[in-house]
């Protein structure tokens, strides 16, 4: 069946390692540095000889010598890497799994876990040793009672991960370590991983103490229970991990700590809880120590979502431990990086969450932070408030701008055209032999780190690619912008004649694709279709208060920026207007902030406008309004006749931005300022109404669908969340925030205001479904 000339399919190991790193850099994981200590200790703890860790320890040691910089991860009180020294080519030809005792073979090969003895499950943690090196290289040595001393390496050469076919043994192995590192080989049973040229973020974390803090936060349970040794050594100084002092105080209930503990009970027809312990302090504690976590095999995995009163949000922590059978179910639902669960709706996690939530509520009642009994109306209002806050938080996490936004958040990666020259400034009908010249675009990286992007510039027709103009992969430094082009396109085969063709730019980064398009017609009459020729968007606005849209007399809005895009094939002459309006007085003009008439934009170009601060002068504003809602409005118009536009004709307007003058906004930072219930049967499940400039959510409690589930807490809350999310989408559309209809991973230039009713309805339905999907998956 398999021919003699068959070979193993090449693997791009560099890409594999980078993908693992990306997983650790994505929430709920806490970054490469945190993941490195977590997985390193987990690997060692899983190989301990004694169940309670007697005589076990791990040391992280940063060493600099003539051979280079090394980060050593050494353990003792473990078995070492046991098992025969099997050649790699033999392992490749094996079928089935490796014996759990073949630790050397498991570690030398890839995609084998540590034998399911520790918290590791998937064998991915070993790739972190490669990822911890700037060059993807590390050496490892091990000493076992039976097999003796052995050493090997894993080093990246091109995209291939190289390892000696057979591990070096005894004196040959020791000499290999000395020759390559000038380090003294280990002389007690255990293992040592030697990272060559470690990454700067790990080195810095060791030097500044964050690395030790991460260890203490992750592994304090085994430090407390088994008195194990985990230390970090640098420059001759050894620091040993301890239980965080605030945790010690909490457990002993001293220095103002209060505790709630429940131990050793079994759920009917299910598994057992070993411990639930909850603690609250009089003083705030470090953010990374807050929250109630669940553990598996003594390793912190993730947090349990709780409704924690704001009064104690930064003073509260706790944990739950469950029996081995429960842990086994949780393990099957755990994410690859060991920081959370794949499916929060699985029974093993739902029961975990229920038990913690139940004890948490009792504790909160005992502390007097929540009332033991509330009326049905109070309960419903509380649920609506909590669900609304949760949805606002969810919208924020997926980068949906808030209602009445202070300005859109900058995209991490911005893509825009930077110019294009059509023959005779005409893109409507091009003929064979015509040339489109100077096709240019720019990509801006607004993050602080280098990002790898892949772009493709092509021509498509009827959603099929017909010509590739350019494809490349590029690394863009943080906080920088790269320009690409010029490219040119000759109108000829294989472009599709007598059809609309599209110049398509696709930029991909971390699974997200940004799409930009420029249509043209090849030897055919253009079909009349809506065009969004100009875009105006607020990109920055700083309020006097971080978490409020209140502005007082003589205070200012600062750092105001808008971007303007010209999506036509001709140079545009634009005037930019910015003004403030009194909402309560039919949007009466209060002040014209800026009128800029000299903006010139080249075809398919983009410009950012820096605006003056808006100062709410007493003599200007208090003569029109004592207090209330003010709208900031921006628009662009034609500064002179061009294309089909006459001078002063409106080209586009940005979303209105609301501020609250001399008063606190109701429900500041929230979509809804209030909630109302109605008993009449209107046929509606819910509704959205604007009351005094604020959005109010209305619930019709006599709708049969609500009455059917009102007594089931889980289904009731889900019903309310679905209705509220639907009305939140409606509120965005009412305010002209059509960007919410582009939250499915791609950005494009389609103008939603110009869609047909059926097309717009389809977009809205899809957006609601997609948001529900993302919410349930999150």
Task: Please name the CATH architecture of the largest domain.
Answer: 2-Layer Sandwich
User: Mind telling me the CATH class of the largest domain?
Assistant: Alpha Beta
**Overall pLDDT:** 85
Number of continuous helical runs = 16
| Largest sheet report | 9 strands, mixed
Superfamily (CATH H level) name of the largest domain:
Histidine kinase-like ATPase, C-terminal domain
Q: Spans with pLDDT under 50 lasting ≥5 residues?
A: 114-123, 404-409, 746-750
Beta content: 25-35%
Describe this structure in words.
The chain is an alpha+beta fold. The chain has five domains: 13-238, Heat Shock Protein 90 (2-Layer Sandwich), CATH 3.30.565; 245-373; 404-527, Immunoglobulin-like, CATH 2.60.40.10; 530-666, Sandwich (Immunoglobulin-like), CATH 2.60.40; 674-777, no CATH class. The chain is built from 16 helices and 35 strands. Strands 1, 2, 3, 4, 5, 6, 7, 8 and 9 form a nine-stranded mixed β-sheet that branches. Strands 23, 25, 26, 29, 30 and 31 form a six-stranded mixed β-sheet that branches. Strand 1 and strand 2 (68-76) form a beta hairpin. The longest helix has 22 residues, at 376-397. The protein is globular, with a radius of gyration of 31 Å. The two termini are 45 Å apart. Mean pLDDT is 85; it is low at 114-123, 404-409 and 746-750.
């Amino acid at each position: 069946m398999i021919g003699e000339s068959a070979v193993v399919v090449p693997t791009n190991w560099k890409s594999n390692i980078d993908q693992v790193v990306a997983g650790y850099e994505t929430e709920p994981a806490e970054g490469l540095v945190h993941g490195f200590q977590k997985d390193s200790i987990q690997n060692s703890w899983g190989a301990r000889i004694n169940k309670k860790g007697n005589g076990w320890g791990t040391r992280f040691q940063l060493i600099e010598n003539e051979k280079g910089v090394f980060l050593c991860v050494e353990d003792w009180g473990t078995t070492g890497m046991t098992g025969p020294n099997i050649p790699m080519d033999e392992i490749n030809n094996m079928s089935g799994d490796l014996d759990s005792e073949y630790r050397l073979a498991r570690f030398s090969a890839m995609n084998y876990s540590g034998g399911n003895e520790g918290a590791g499950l998937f064998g991915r943690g070993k790739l972190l040793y490669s990822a911890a090196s700037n060059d993807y290289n590390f050496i490892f040595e091990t000493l076992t009672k039976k097999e003796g001393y052995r050493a090997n390496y894993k080093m990246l050469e091109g995209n291939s991960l190289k390892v000696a076919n057979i591990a070096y043994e005894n004196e040959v192995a020791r000499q290999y370590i000395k020759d390559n590192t000038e380090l003294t080989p280990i002389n007690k049973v255990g293992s040592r991983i030697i990272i060559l040229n470690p990454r700067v973020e790990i080195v810095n974390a060791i030097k500044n103490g964050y690395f030790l803090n991460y260890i203490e936060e992750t592994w304090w349970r085994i430090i407390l229970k088994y008195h194990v040794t985990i230390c970090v050594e640098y420059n001759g100084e050894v620091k040993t991990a301890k239980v965080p002092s605030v945790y010690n105080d909490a457990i002993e209930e001293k220095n103002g700590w209060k505790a709630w503990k429940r131990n050793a009970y079994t759920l009917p027809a299910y598994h057992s809880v070993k411990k639930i312990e909850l603690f609250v302090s009089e003083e705030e504690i470090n953010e990374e120590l807050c929250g109630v976590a669940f553990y598996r095999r003594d390793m912190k995995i993730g947090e349990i979502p709780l409704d924690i009163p704001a009064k104690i949000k930064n003073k509260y922590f706790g944990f739950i431990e469950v029996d081995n059978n429960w842990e086994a179910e949780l393990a099957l639902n755990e994410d690859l990086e060991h920081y959370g669960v794949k499916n929060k709706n699985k029974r093993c996690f739902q029961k975990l969450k229920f038990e913690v939530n139940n004890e948490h509520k009792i504790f909160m009642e005992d502390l007097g932070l929540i009332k033991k009994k509330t009326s049905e109306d109070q309960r419903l209002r509380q649920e609506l408030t909590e669900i609304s806050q949760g949805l606002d938080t969810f919208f924020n996490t997926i980068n949906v701008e808030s209602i009445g936004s202070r300005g859109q958040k900058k995209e991490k990666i911005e893509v825009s055209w930077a110019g294009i020259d059509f023959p005779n400034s005409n893109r409507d009908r091009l003929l064979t032999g015509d040339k489109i010249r100077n096709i240019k675009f720019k990509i801006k990286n607004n993050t602080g780190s280098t990002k790898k992007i892949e772009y493709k510039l092509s021509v498509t027709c009827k959603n099929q690619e017909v010509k590739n103009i350019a494809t490349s992969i590029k690394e863009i430094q943080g906080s920088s912008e790269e320009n690409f082009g010029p490219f040119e396109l000759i109108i000829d085969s294989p472009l599709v004649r007598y059809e609309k063709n599209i110049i398509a730019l696709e930029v991909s980064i971390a699974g997200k694709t940004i799409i930009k398009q420029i249509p043209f017609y090849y030897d055919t009459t253009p079909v009349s279709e809506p065009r969004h020729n100009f875009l105006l968007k607020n990109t920055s606005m700083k309020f006097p208060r971080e978490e409020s849209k209140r502005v007082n007399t003589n205070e200012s809005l600062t750092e105001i920026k808008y971007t303007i895009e010209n999506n036509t094939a001709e140079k545009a002459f634009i005037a930019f207007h910015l003004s403030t309006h009194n909402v309560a007085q039919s949007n009466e003009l209060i002040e014209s902030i800026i009128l800029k008439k000299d903006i010139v934009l080249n075809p398919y170009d983009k410009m950012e406008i820096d605006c003056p601060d808006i100062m709410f002068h007493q003599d200007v504003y208090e003569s029109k309004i004592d207090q209330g809602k003010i709208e900031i409005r921006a628009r662009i118009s034609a500064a002179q006749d061009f294309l089909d536009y006459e001078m002063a004709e409106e080209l586009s307007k940005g979303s209105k931005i609301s501020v609250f003058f001399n008063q606190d906004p109701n429900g500041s930072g929230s979509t809804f300022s209030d909630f109302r219930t109605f008993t009449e049967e209107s046929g509606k499940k819910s509704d959205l109404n604007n009351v005094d400039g604020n959005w109010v959510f209305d619930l019709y409690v006599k709708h049969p669908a609500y009455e059917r589930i009102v007594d089931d807490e889980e289904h009731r809350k889900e019903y309310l969340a679905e209705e509220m999310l639907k009305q939140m989408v409606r509120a965005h559309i009412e305010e002209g925030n059509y960007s919410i209809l582009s939250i499915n991973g791609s950005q494009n230039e389609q103008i939603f205001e110009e869609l047909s009713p059926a097309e717009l309805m389809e977009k809205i339905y899809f957006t609601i479904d997609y948001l529900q999907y993302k919410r349930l998956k999150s």
